User: What shape does this take?
Amino acid sequence: MQDKILKTSAESADNKEPIITTRGLVKKFSGKTVLRGIDADIYEGEKVAVIGPSGSGKSTFLRCLNLLEIPTAGKIAFGDEIIYESDYYAQKDKLKELKDHKRAYVSGTDDDEVRSLKARESELKAQLKDLKKELEALKTHAKLLKATSYREGAAEDAEKTEKRIFEAVKEKDSIKAEIKSVKDGIKQRKTVVKSSLDDSKIAEMKADIAAQREVTAAALSRHKKFIKKMDKTVDAHRRMTGMVFQHFNLFNNLSVIDNITLAPVKTGIMEAKAQKKALKAAARKGDKDAEARLLTLPHKLEIIENARKQAFELLERVGLKDKAYVYPATLSGGQKQRIAIVRALAMNPKIMLFDEPTSALDPEMVGEVLQVIKKLADDGMTMVIVTHEMGFAREVATRVLFIDEGQIKEDAPPKELFGNPKNDRLKEFLSKVL
Ligand SMILES: Nc1ncnc2c1ncn2[C@@H]1O[C@H](COP(=O)(O)OP(=O)(O)OP(=O)(O)O)[C@@H](O)[C@H]1O
Ligand SMILES: [Mg+2]
Assistant: This one.
C-alpha cells in the first residue's frame, strides 16, 4: 500500500462499464476534417495507449474527450451521462449535398458527356500549367546561355533550347485552342441537356431540399440547446477527467503546493456554497435534517487544510514532498511533469488523459515520469495515454489504438497489435518507430 499513488485502489478491470464512450466523433477545423468518426469505449480500469503518425488527430481526440475541443458531430458519454451529442453539422452537409446536386442538374452539368468534357478540360489545363513552367525555365536557361556564350558547347545548347522554346510555344497554342473547343463543347452540350430537363425531377429535388432544411433546422435547435446545457456540465466533466500535457502547463507564478491545491480549493468552496444555499432553502421550509446538516458543512479553512493534506500525501508518493514550497522554474522537466500529474490527481479524477507526457523531457528524465504513470496504472487508475514510447505502451497498456488520418485503424491488446499488426498503415508506422 505504501508505494501506491492512489489511496484507494480501483481494481475493476472486470467491471465492464465504459467510463467514456464516443460514437461517430467528428472534428473539423475550418473545413479540414481531423477526426472522421471515432467510435471508442474506454472501460473502467483500462490503460489505453494511443499511437499514430504526427497530425493524425491523437491530441484532438484526447482534447475532445475532455471537451477542451468541442466536436463537430457525434456523441460523447461519460458513464450514463451524454456530455455531447449533435448531428447538426452532418445534417448541414447533407443539405449542401442536395443543393449542389440540384444546382448541377438545372445547370446541365449533371451529365456524363459534360463530366467527361470537364475532366478533359482540367487535364488540358494541368498540361498547360506544366508547359508554362517549362517555358519559364527554358527562357531563364536561354538568358544564362547568352551570358556564358564563351563556354564550350554553349552554341549547340542555345540552339537546342531555342528549338524547344519554339516547339513549346506551338504546343501551348494548340493546347489553348483545344481548351477553347472543349469549353465550347461543354456549353453546347449543356444547352442540349438543359432543353430536356425533367420538371418533375426538379420538383422532387426541391421537395427533398425543403424537407432536409427542416431536419437541419431541428438539428440546429437541438445543437443550440445542448451547447447551452453543456456550459453547465462541462466543468463537472473536466473535473472528473485529469489531463496531463506535453508541456506541463504549470502556473509559474504559483508555488508547487498552490499549483496543486488551487483547483480543489476553488471547487471545494464553490460546492460548499452551493450546498449551503440548497440546505438553507430547505431549512427555511422546515426541513430539520437540512438544518442539522448546515452545521456540518466544511469551513473554508477546513477545505484548504484538507486539500493541502492530500497534496502532501500525493507529493510524497511521487517523491517530491520537499518541493512543496518552491516555484516551478526551479524544477527539472521530469519534476515538473510529476507535479503536473499530482495536480491532476488532486481533483480525484475518474480517468487520466495523458498527451505525450514524456516527449518534452530530456531522455534521463523520461524514466521517472513513466514510473509514476506505471504506478498509477498498477493502482487501477483508468487512463488514456497518447505516447511515442512504444516500449511503455507494450508494457503498461491493456489496449492500444492506432489512429491514422482521423480514424481508429486498429484496436487490439499490445501483444497482438505490435506482434501481429494487420493494417498496412500500422505496419508502415511500426517499421519506422520500432
Ligand atoms: N486548433 C486547431 N486549429 C486548426 N487546426 C488544428 C487545430 N488543432 C489541430 N489542428 C490540426 O489537426 C490535425 C491533427 O492535429 P493533432 O494535434 O490532433 O495531431 P497529433 O496526432 O496529436 O499529432 P502529433 O503527434 O504531432 O502531436 C493537424 O493537421 C493539426 O494541424
Ligand atoms: Mg499531439
Notes: Residues 114 and 187 are 9 Å apart (CA to CA).
